[in-house]
Amino acid sequence: MKKFYFRSSLLTLLLSGFAFGQGTETFESQTALSSSYKTGSFTGETGGIVWNYTNARNEGTYPITNKGILFQASGNTLETTISNGIGKLSFDVRKAFTAGSNDRKIEVLVDNVVVFTSPTFGTTSTDTTIHNYEVEINKTGVVTVTFRNAGPQLTLDNISWTAAGVATEKPVVSPRTITGTYGVLLSDGAVTATNNPTSWAQTGTLPLGITFDNGVFSGTPEQPGTFTAQVTATNQYGTSDPANVTFEIAKANQTVNYTFEHLTQNQGTTFSGLPSQTDQGLNIVYTSADNSVVSTNGNILSFDGIGSTTITATAVSNNNYNEFNTTFDVSVTDPNATYCFEEEFEGLSGNNTSTTGSSASWNGNSNFPTVATVYQAGNAIRLGSSNNKGGITSKVLDQISGNVTVSFEVKGWTAVEGSINLTLGSETKNVVYTAKMADNFETQTVSFENVAAGSTLKFETSAKRAFIDNVRIQCASSNNSTTWDGTAWSNGAPDLTKEVILHATPTESFSAKKLTIERDMIIPAGITITVENEVVNQNDVTFRFRHGAYLIQNNNSAVNVGPAMFDRSSTPIYRLENMTWSSPVIGQNIFEISPKTLTNRFTRFNESTNDWDANVTSTDTFQAGELIAFRAPNDYNNYGEGDAQVFESSFSGQLFNGEVTIPVTKTSKGNNAVGNPYASPLSLDALIAANTSVGVNSVYVWTHSKPIVNGAYQGSNWAIYNGIGWNDPAMTSPNIDIAQGFIVKVANAGNLVLNNAMRTSANGPVYYKGQKDRYWLSLSVDQTKLNTSLIGYGMGSTNKFDQNFDAQPFDNNNEGLYSVLNNDLFVIQGRGDFNNEDSFDLTFNVKKAGTYQINLEQFEGVFENQNIYLVDKKLDKVINLTELKSYSFDTEAGEINDRFSINYQNKTLSTNDLSKKGLVVYAQNKQITISSKESIKSIKLVDISGRQLQNIQNINTKNYVINLNVNPQVVVVVVENTNGTTESRKVILK
Length: 990
Description:
Number of helices: 4
Helix content: under 10%
Radius of gyration: 49 Å
Mean pLDDT: 88
Distance between the termini: 139 Å
Oligomer: single chain
Number of strands: 80
Strand content: over 45%
């Protein structure tokens, strides 16, 4: 009995302990500790010592030497204050309550700083070893000493300490290595020295977060790595030599406040409950072992194909944290599956949650008539025992053949004991699982190919015990979808009868019954997707169409889900040029399309004034079918001050689909603004044909073919379309592109209707030569084309005004060349069935005097073999435009309406030939020349107010020249012929 040899000197020790700073505590004299855990205090056996304890009791059946103190749990303490210093501390500990195998540790704190942590002890269940530890403290003055339990129950006894040493020489500091972890409070940072130091000093490099005070390093490391500091101690005899203190600070492990466990969901669903970051803020990357079964997009899992796979979650390491890595299993079931074999083990006794709940044997049933070492386990079965494997074999499965899928639920004993061998027909597959008895069942899905009819299904444990439930064999699926993974379609090529799931960028155009987007997707230019019904972007992933990629939908009632984005690009433009756009999505803010455009440069077209109103506000969004005009960004180059720039922008929002009704009015010219509301081109022919109630005469589309110089466009930028075609031969498609606004001229007020039947593919049909009898004339100057006009024959037109075939210019003030019908100017004119006797006048308008060209741009149909002649009445010339293609002439500025005409017969140049065309009148240099096919009796000149300028009688000739000295003005020439007929012409005097 160890304590008895202290008896002879106990009194001396007690009497001298207070005076000399040494003492003991054997717990023999205290009576406070009982068999119950309490918090309290007692007077120690050394004079002046009082011990305070928390959650402690007597030693019970775990003594060291008679009485002692037994701590209940980690954090329990025994503490005292020694008033005159302490040298070396000694004590005994042992494990208490030895049935467990938990590790034990004890800590010693001096003045609330840990100076000692014992090695781990008591790791075996019956460990009764007594451990003695000595701690060199050597601290003078008032010292608080604390024993703190750092694990489960342990017993403490035989505490003793010596007085602080009396120094006779300078201190000696002991070098040491201090270990710690980033972000974790340092537990043992004390440095020891001999000869009672009175002060301490430290130099060198410390980890961030660590400080040094009075011989103790403390704090929380904020920097992993290896660091070396030097410590010196000083007393009345001098300062010690420096001793190295090395810090080994390890990276911390990342943690995640989430339980990664087996997931089972239906095909076509997603799971978004995974954490995106560790608790330390580092991103978690999820990867799938088989993307065809379950794919990942950020922290979202997409359950794509039938089967099972493993997901790996990884967060990379950084300067402070180790890499985080874990795995979990996922399974995908078919929601449309039909099962030709099912067994749920209903009605079986017992349970599958305890070691005693599955003791009753199970002898099988009609589905599994053959069993070996099988037990009932509460609506489930247990295969195997502590000594034997177990197994079940099904009946003969005559109705099962081909490719089938087996699913079942499984979990192990208190620990997983092996795996499951699953045999169907001639093929055996080994299934590894992780769920234990305390866990929920996990679902496993296994696929078998080319199974022969008449096979059996067998389950067998590879070693000892496992629980099995809910066995199913899937024989067929009603699923009619196909998934694109970037390489192949999972269920054959798509069409309008199959639903399509996109997991990768398509490489060619395709059709689908329904389109589902489950991953970030950018559709490249040249791809057109045609969908019968809805488009679903349930998880709001990126679904972006590049300029030139399109989406057509057929069902007007389909409701789309989730956002899409459409990139649009203009032709190169300058700062003062305008664009006329519309939106293919719902909710797009108007100003956000071009943030650098001045806000007062966003406008809407007003039919009543035939002009643009700057009435767009910052909260306005594009409405379906709405045209918004806006100027280029204000930082673009002006014309002549740098290159033109391509304007690029994007529309974002839910896809618009279905019918849209746009009210149109005719209080002025009937010009109403409209926009293509769809994610695909819009057929103008279909639009015109479907809106006969409002009578669409022509469609005007703004182009960027003419630059704006000094605030004025150099010609007309309006491309015009009607039943004859475009006035510009460069326009070959009768379709309006995505996000394009346009103007429709209507004959009647009412509602203009757009719908999915008008949607078409990327470019639509192109007009080829021979399809229509028509040609295009243009007016140009200095190699700049001012405008183009179209002349067409047939197609249902007449040589009178036709609502569907004759189109006037959007603005008569623009420079250009126009055909004339009933004294009105036209950029497109349909003239009935072709007759080579036909002829008509041309009018041109120019702002400056100079040399201009009339050009035959292009011709088709009958004009492949029919010459087109331009008649210059002023110069008495007939020009074969079919051969020459262009005619150059000089002119004054203004609108000239009596100089040129078109005919289709080659004639010699004579006054006679010209006179057959009737009366010819033209003015030049204040001189009016009149030629008539009849003899002229008289000529009257009248100004536009009706005032008569001249009245010349008794002329009796077919040609006459009048010289006038008047200001520039418009003059009407009235000619009376000798046969009694009267004709008039209007000329402009310069």
